[in-house]
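Hello Y.,

Per our agreement to keep a running log of every chain we model this quarter, I'm adding this entry. I've kept the format consistent with earlier entries: sequence first, then predicted structure.
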Amino acid sequence: MFLLKYRHLKEFGTPTKSVLRSCCKGTGNKAESPSLVRGHRLGPADDELYQRTTVTLMQKEKEGGAMIHSYSPTGFNIDGNRVIGPCAVIPPAILQWNVGSHKDITIESLALFYMLEPRIEVLVLGTGGRMERLDPEVLAFLKKKGIAVEVQATEHACATFNFLSSERRITAAGLIPPPVSTELV
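Predicted structure for the entry above:
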């Protein structure tokens, strides 16, 4: 019987009321008919677009970005995290940075900064106890990538990074701890 009804649908297109009645006859379930299910109009209870969506905030966003609280010859205190040695601060991540001095800052050592998405606006480089000149090719390469670079002594680089981060700028820092001072004050 179903095959006969299928042929009727195939030959005549839309089913007639008599075909639909005979299709569901004996079962008492109108939902078994494919055409009745397809023609069902969705209401607020059926469609998830009509239902209310709620969002629960698990962790509130900080007011500013990462903050460098202190530095020493051994490392940095960034948002309560103690970092030993040179580090790359890419909020919200803090990574060990494999450089020993400003001479080790090359295009390859800066790869993690220029490969990020979204692209950072400003890269702050702290070169240790005093500002050191970097290879002009490195600076030109970062400029070509659209990244502004601030090269400073580490103490000033920390302050610059904190300022830019508090202004919600897309910024990152590469920091080398300053050497142990042997000066008498």
